[in-house]
């Protein structure tokens, strides 16, 4: 048996991986996870089941927690149905020895070799009020960020899209209508991604090189589709998620980000929310604090191009 190591919460630095390696441990992350450990926030069982089943692929490492109420209800069915699809379950030794290897990578959440740099990302916009406010703050500090736009909103507020591009920020594709990938057929997923890509190209001569799925799941087909259009499939350092879409106050958002962020992280925020957003005010707190701590801020593509690109994949 090899010796395996997994850091709590999946938080790691190059130093930690090096140390584990020196002690003879191989660090293994996962290729699929959902917040099953959070029993206070469980979605229903069929949601969890569908997410796992729709993500199945060779060499996959699925992270589950024994305390999960949902898992206890679906585990037996999962095992039966995964076997019925022709998959075998193996331990990590067997998986490493197999032709598939251990797939715990491919989902970009950070770039640990970027040094003291962070990428702020804003999803779901543009929004007529909040996006310009955020752009004003970014301008004030002279920093660049990435906006994962929803095609429908981009079509509604093209002048804001133009301002984002003209200001030197990056735009990523966040589907056309923000539907959850696991509720769609393959054809629908393709359409959701290609429609936004085509709209941005036709309207602004802009071709995004980043794609982020709504909800941030690890969906193999969506990833393949995005990659076929030249887009990297980008998630975020999940520790930093302030759930700002649920409209907590600005202090709560900035506190979550500032207390969890580390070098090379991609940080998730939202410029479009349904209610009264505190995100612009939070951004006005986060940016000066990060700069004061010696971080530089960059677009996602800028962050990923720093250092070696190998370690921006989990599991490396
Ligand atoms: Zn979104």
Structure in words:
- It is a single chain.
- The protein is of the alpha/beta class and 316 residues long.
- It has 2 domains: 3-97, Alpha-Beta Barrel (TIM Barrel); 117-312, TIM Barrel (Alpha-Beta Barrel), CATH 3.20.20.
- It is 40% helix and 10% strand.
- The protein contains 12 helices and 9 strands.
- It has helices at 14-22, 45-55, 69-84, 92-97, 130-141, 151-156, 158-166, 186-204, 220-228, 250-260, 279-292, 300-304; strands spanning 3-5, 25-27, 117-123, 146-149, 170-173, 210-211, 232-233, 266-270, 296-297.
- The strands form 3 sheets. Strands 3, 4, 5, 8 and 9 form a 5-stranded parallel sheet that branches. It has a two-stranded parallel ribbon with strand order 1-2.
- α2 packs parallel to α3 and α5 runs parallel beside α11 (279-292).
- The longest helix is centred in the middle third of the chain and has 19 residues, at 186-204.
- The radius of gyration is 20 Å and the shape is globular.
- Zinc ion binds at residues 123-124, 174, 178, 214.
């Amino acid at each position: 048996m090899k010796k395996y190591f997994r850091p709590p919460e999946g938080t790691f630095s190059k130093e930690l991986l090096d140390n584990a390696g020196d002690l003879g441990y191989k660090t293994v992350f996962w290729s699929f996870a959902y917040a099953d450990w959070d029993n206070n926030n469980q979605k229903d069982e069929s949601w969890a089941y569908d997410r796992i089943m729709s993500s199945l692929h060779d060499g996959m490492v699925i992270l589950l927690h024994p305390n999960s109420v949902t898992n206890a209800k679906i585990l037996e069915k999962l095992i039966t149905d995964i076997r019925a699809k022709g998959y075998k379950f193996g331990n990590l030794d067997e998986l490493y020895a197999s032709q598939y290897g251990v797939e715990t990578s491919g989902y970009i959440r950070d770039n640990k070799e970027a040094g003291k740099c962070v990428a702020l990302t804003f999803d779901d916009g543009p929004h007529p009020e909040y996006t310009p406010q955020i752009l004003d703050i970014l301008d004030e500090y002279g920093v660049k960020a990435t906006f994962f736009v929803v095609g429908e909103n981009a079509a509604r507020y093209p002048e804001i899209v133009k301002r984002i591009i003209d200001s030197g920020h990056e735009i990523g594709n966040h589907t056309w209508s923000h539907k959850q990938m696991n509720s769609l057929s393959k054809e629908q997923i393709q359409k959701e991604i290609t429609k936004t890509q085509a709209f941005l190209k036709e309207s602004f001569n802009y071709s995004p090189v980043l794609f982020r799925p709504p909800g941030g799941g690890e969906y193999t087909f969506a990833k393949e589709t995005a990659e076929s259009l030249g887009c990297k499939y980008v998630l975020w350092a999940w520790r930093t998620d302030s759930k700002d879409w649920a409209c907590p106050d600005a202090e709560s958002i900035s506190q979550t980000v500032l207390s969890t962020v580390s070098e090379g992280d991609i940080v998730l925020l939202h410029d479009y929310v349904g209610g009264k957003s505190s995100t612009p005010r939070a951004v006005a707190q986060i940016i000066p604090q990060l700069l004061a701590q010696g971080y530089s801020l960059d677009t996602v593509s800028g962050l990923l191009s720093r250092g070696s690109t190998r370690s921006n994949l989990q599991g490396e």
